[in-house]
Amino acid sequence: MSILKYMKGKIIWVIWLFPLLTSFIAPKVGFSETPVFLDGEKLTFRIHYGFITGGEVNITANKTWLNGQEVFHTVLAGKTTGLIDKLYKVNDVYESFFDPATNLPDKAIRNIREGSYRYYDEVEFNREGMYVTSQRNGKVSVPKNTLDMASVMYYVRRLDLSRLSENDIISLDTYFGDSLFPFYIVYKGKETISISSGKYKCFKFVPIVEPGRVFENNDDMTIWFSDDENKIPVSIKFNILVGSFKCDLAKFENLKYPSTAKIK
């Protein structure tokens, strides 16, 4: 029962942090001119605390139209499941509408439902004017290539990660939580990992996090991307003050390329 006590309220950090875990850009790494993902791609993840499965994250990408332009509409939806859902219900949704050519967002939506807490915001990006307009916070100046939380994973997947050297530090500016949110991550080389859905060859990264509120050390988070042309997130592990969480890939659908990173 002590595990369940710690899980209550902590599962929201997994869902809230999931998009942050995939947010970075390498300035000197090549960028694919065409998306490495298809219209209709879907990734499903399970969130685990020890032997308890406490949540699910679904990430989808579909083409649509916004202001007369074709865009990718990505949705990252995280929710609690099972016993954890009885203790503290979470249903968070992050949406992004981004340019297929540049992967830069035109609009982002954040819809948070955690227990009795509610948060909703829509943000529009003006890259030429170098500002965003938020329903909650008005006009905010940002760098030209600022991303939102739901588009960053698709941006990094278009980077040539094979050109990175171990311990390279890469950074990105994102707009999140009513303000500009800078993020840094360290490349740690290649690694083969085993999760419940199989064994995968991966690129390994360690984001630099702020210790104190949730994390004990600034390197308590690790993320693995598949070492193939898809570069999908495979597993995320992080240690917080009450224990260790994992978010593992459970299923993928409609990948553009064969999943050669998965070892049969």
What do these coordinates show?
Helix content is 11%, strand content 51%. It is mainly beta. The chain has a 15-stranded antiparallel sheet that branches. The longest helix is centred in the N-terminal third of the chain and has 11 residues, at 11-21. The N and C termini lie far apart (38 Å).
Topology summary:
Layout: H1 2-7, H2 11-21, E1 41-49, E2 52-66, E3 69-80, H3 82-87, E4 91-98, E5 105-114, E6 117-126, E7 131-134, E8 138-141, H4 152-157, E9 169-176, E10 179-195, E11 198-207, E12 221-226, E13 233-240, E14 243-253, E15 262-263
Antiparallel strand pairs: 1-2, 1-14, 2-3, 3-4, 4-5, 5-6, 6-7, 7-8, 9-10, 10-11, 11-12, 11-15, 12-13, 13-14
Give the helix tally. 4
Report the mean per-residue pLDDT as an integer.
85
User: What ranges have pLDDT less than 50 throughout 5 or more consecutive residues?
Assistant: 1-8, 211-218
Largest sheet, in brief, is: 15 strands, antiparallel
User: From the alpha-carbon coordinates, what is the Rg to the nearest angstrom?
Assistant: 18 Å
Query: What proportion of the residues is helical, as a percent range?
Result: 10-25%
- Which secondary-structure class do the elements indicate? mainly beta
Order of SSEs, N→C? HHEEEHEEEEEHEEEEEEE
Spatial separation of the terminal alpha carbons:
38 Å
β-strand number:
15
Identify the overall geometry: globular
Question: How many distinct folded domains?
Answer: 1
Beta-strand residue fraction: over 45%
Throw out a few tags for this protein.
15 strands, mainly beta
Q: Summary?
A:
By secondary structure, this protein is mainly β. 11% of the residues lie in helices and 51% in strands.
